[in-house]
Amino acid sequence: MNFDHLLLGFVTALVALCFLCLYRGWRGPTVADRMVAIDILGILVVGVCPLWAIYTRRGFLIDIALAWVLLSFIGTLALAKYLGGQQFDE
Amino acid sequence: MNDYIGVTVICVGVVFDLFGCIGLVRLPDVYNRLQAATKCVSLGTCGIMFGTFLMEGFSALGVKALVAIPLIFVTAPTAAHALARGAHISGVSLWKKSVCDEYEKEGKQVGRGKPVI
Q1: Which of A61, A65, A85, B28 suits B96 as a labelling partner, its CA being 20 to 30 A distant?
Q2: What is the pTM of this model?
Q3: Does B17 contact A17 at a Cβ distance shorter than 8 Å?
Q4: Is residue A34 part of a domain?
Q5: Which residues contact A53 (CB under 8 A, 6 or more apart)?
Q6: Is some CB atom of chain B closer than 8 A to the CB atom of A20?
Q7: Could you tell me the residue range of the domain that residue A10 belongs to?
Q8: Searching chain B, which residue's CA lies closest to the CA of residue A13?
Q9: Which of the residue ranges A41-45, A53-57, A61-65, B95-99 would you say has the lowest mean pLDDT?
Q10: How many domains, chain A?
Q11: Do the domain assignments include residue A42?
Q12: Which of B37, B59, B65 sits opposite A40 (nearest CB)?
């Protein structure tokens, strides 16, 4: 059984959800809303990566997902500390 | 057979992602959005990773997808907690119908000023 069309549909749905996140990042009334939107956008892109790796049979895309998880975590943590009034080295 | 189970798990993950993003767009304030979005989207992405592992088996791609699951489950709630704390300290107000504010009761938060817009 060939699942290519189904996987392409899943990727399309996740990209559409990324646009919902971008909408919240555009309209968000506070900085915290925008940061939540970018954090969720990162996790959605991490979900796109393995599906695209199965679809195109390119295994290195999952490495991008792993790196993206860690970098998104570090970035969000640093910006959250900055939002809480602390410096980056505290 | 594993392919069918894997595609089903991936489908459930995408549906969880959909619910999380609807919550992110529709809910009223930043704390509600953070809760809905982080829970649903991290579970949905872990579902996608587990479905990838079921479809690929113990190849390089499948094992790396399996490694990504605990990574997401550790990092996403930590980042969400730090974001909620930072938002509360920086003075983002709750929704007017919210009933409980434990941070405010503790009274230990410092630096509550104008919200950062």
Answers
A1: A85
A2: 0.87
A3: yes
A4: yes
A5: A59, A60, A61, A62, B52, B61
A6: yes
A7: 4-83
A8: B14
A9: B95-99
A10: 1
A11: yes
A12: B37
